[in-house]
Design a protein that fits this description.
There is one protein chain. With 239 residues, the protein is an alpha/beta fold. Helix content is 57%, strand content 11%. It has a 5-stranded parallel sheet with strand order 2-1-3-4-5, with helices on both faces. About 3% of the residues have low confidence.
């Protein structure tokens, strides 16, 4: 399981985040919930979380100072900031500290889901896999990560490379990770598209091609279905 630590001085926010995480059906385990930065730092040192959700404005130790202290301890947890501060300076400082995502309150559940799915997808660990299937599923996901730009990539191609029947691979992937082949491929493609759009260097049709969608209209539909927003809207609001 991927261990998650929550740090926020508002009890209602902490409880709300916990409820959201439980509803995502991802391989996540909440290992701690801290009400200030100092408490969060102590918990992180002992619990060694994989992902930390933290506010910026907290008593005793701010979120940014908390992150700096974590780096001093050489912890490699992925950091997702959830804050009500809209000023660019806070976001700039957070980005300079290497946080994975910066989400604004009031938090949209879809945005947190995307951030957590990104963290799970990018993790080197493959939680919830039993010992017999971990190698097969791990190889499958690695093939998807390496070949998502191929618009012809499908279950049969991957199964052939892994020397298993497509039905067998499909069944094991769904059973062990909770997501289907198509869902995994879509996650990887759309999360990569989000990163490319955020860079601001590519036209949307170029992004579509780079992540394996030969049809821009199909890319737009898949993107909106996954994020709740169109690629054009995401591009305009992320600049």
């Amino acid at each position: 399981m991927i261990k998650v630590l929550i740090a926020d001085d508002e009890q209602m926010i902490r409880e709300g985040l916990e409820q959201m995480l439980q509803g995502f059906h991802l391989p996540l385990q909440l290992v701690g919930s801290a009400k200030n930065g100092k408490e969060a730092l102590a918990m992180a040192e002992v619990l060694q979380p994989d992902v930390i959700l933290t506010d910026i404005c907290m008593p005793k130790l701010s979120g940014l100072d908390f992150i700096r202290a974590l780096q001093g301890q050489k912890q490699n947890a992925k950091i997702i900031i959830i804050s009500g501060f809209h000023e660019f300076d806070y976001a700039r400082q957070a980005i300079s500290l290497g946080v994975q995502d910066y989400l604004l309150k009031p938090l949209q559940e879809s945005e947190l889901r995307m951030a957590m799915e990104k963290a799970v997808t990018n993790m080197e660990v493959l939680p919830m896999l039993d010992q017999n299937n971990s190698s097969l599923i791990g190889e499958c996901l690695q093939i998807l990560k390496n070949n998502y730009s191929d618009s012809n990539l499908d279950l049969s191609m991957v199964a052939k490379e892994l020397l298993v029947h497509p039905d067998t691979l499909s069944r094991k992937l769904k059973k062990e990770t909770g997501a289907s082949f198509v869902e995994w491929l879509t996650k990887i493609r759309i999360q990569t598209a989000i990163d490319l759009i955020t860079q601001g260097q590519y036209a949307l049709y170029e992004v579509a091609e780079m992540v394996g969608y030969s049809n821009p209209h199909y890319f737009s539909a898949a993107f909106k279905n996954y994020t709740g927003k169109s690629p054009k809207y995401y591009k305009e609001t992320s600049v």
